[in-house]
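Re: your question about Hexosaminidase

S., sorry for the slow reply, the queue was backed up all week. Below is exactly what I fed in.
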Amino acid sequence: MKKVCLYLWLSVASWGAALAQSTYPIVPKPAHLVPKNGHFIFPKTLLIAVTSTDPHLRHFAEEFAQTIGLVSGHDTRVFAGNFRVKEGINLVPGKDLKLGHKGYFLDISPQRIVITAEQPQGFAAGIHALKQLMPQAIMGAQRVQGVDWKIPCCYIEDQP
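Result:
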């Protein structure tokens, strides 16, 4: 009986790990990923706020917005300054986070996505991870019809 229970437990545990891996297909696997309930669903107008005047960060945001707009057909707008959006994507510079130059935090909720990093390389890594959670069409070069533009909610800490 103990062997049967152990076998069932191992089966459920491995199935859960496989399910999480398919829901969060990030390569390489982040150092820390916490699944959360729900999805961030792209609004018709997607706002991306850059809480900095750093030109590198603004450039990342504008490139990302352009890609999203191209493949999804959604209107995307980038704002830079000392504010965040309640619904949309926020790129937030942090200090003394001890993440290293490529480290980032990625927090996805049904209302907003927040990427926090200390360095431009960290924002690039965070955006790359976010793209891997998006529908495959994000990797294309033209608009794709019929795509369900949503991202599974989770919290990620990584130092690639």
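Residues 2-23 form the longest helix (22 residues). The first strand starts at residue 32 and ends at 41.

Happy to talk it through on Thursday.
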